[in-house]
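Supplementary Data S3. Sequence and structure tokens for construct A.
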Amino acid sequence: MTPAPRRRPGLIEVLSAQGGETFHRLLRGRQLELRDFYSARELGRRVPSRTPWVVFVGVSMFDSRKGALTVARRRPAIVAQLALPAGRGINYAKTASEGHYTIWAAAEDLLAAVVDVVRHP
């Protein structure tokens, strides 16, 4: 019996931040922390079987606050808005569902890019 072919992830277009691109990140706790901008790898999680490595080592964000809220499992939800700066080696790509992006950057650079934090009931 021949095994079924493994599903290959599609190609993604990786872009470099040019300055001002806006993304939204659902925060884990009640306060903004550096840890909120760690990748799943940096948090010591295991790679899910169908998750491409390149997504696993990035940080999940959305192009709208509403998009971030759709994945919130608890309320109140806290969402940070980031404006990415140019020249910091920050890259991003559209991945997964509509409005979802993966961002590759140092957590410190992402924390510094926060321009607003909103708590949603």
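Construct B, processed identically:
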Amino acid sequence: MGTHKKILIVDDDMIALDIVDFLFEDHGFEVIRSSDGPSALQSVDQMSPDVILIDLMMPAMSGQECIEAIRAKGITAPIVAFTAIDDPEVHAAVEAAGGNLVLTKPCKPSRLLEEIEALLERP
């Protein structure tokens, strides 16, 4: 990728946040980090990320609630839910809320990167 794409990573698990942050920085992304939904909403407004990667199970505001709030702002950037919840009903609810893709943890780093890059290449 020629230009640095901005990715907002939202996760309350600091270890997971560090690992995913390193993966994307290592592949040329500008990484924006948020540890909860409310701070993610501020980051969306201030930083205009190209893609958003969000955990579903977080305190204060769930990932699904955050996705709904982001879409309510008119933000069209692709959103990927990255979660340990492997339940088709939950995945369908996330997509209904405006998520573009749900990936279940654990996920190979190469697959996560490929899925994000594929979303960014779509018109």
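Residues 6-118 form a domain with the Rossmann fold fold (CATH 3.40.50.2300). Strands lie at 6-10, 30-34, 51-54, 79-83, 101-104.
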